[in-house]
Amino acid sequence: MLSDIAYKKMLWHSRRGMWELDILLLPFAEKKLPELNENDHKLYERLLTEEDQDLFACLVERVQHPDKELQTIIAKIREFAASGVAKPH
Description:
Elements: H1 4-13, H2 19-32, H3 38-47, H4 52-59, H5 68-82
């Protein structure tokens, strides 16, 4: 289970230098992180270490991330974004 401190930390790190990433990451973090399993939490934390431009390119399917494990969390973020979620606060 994700602790409140870990959740808030990941939520904070989901705020990026690019507005486009904020639109993709913040709603996912706010709504889906509490539901994910521990492995997905670790993958999400690893994903947040990526450079903004590289991360954005993967999330909008310009390129495929070379790490197969990270591709699974990227797919979950894409799926969530495609479901028509609202913009972050």
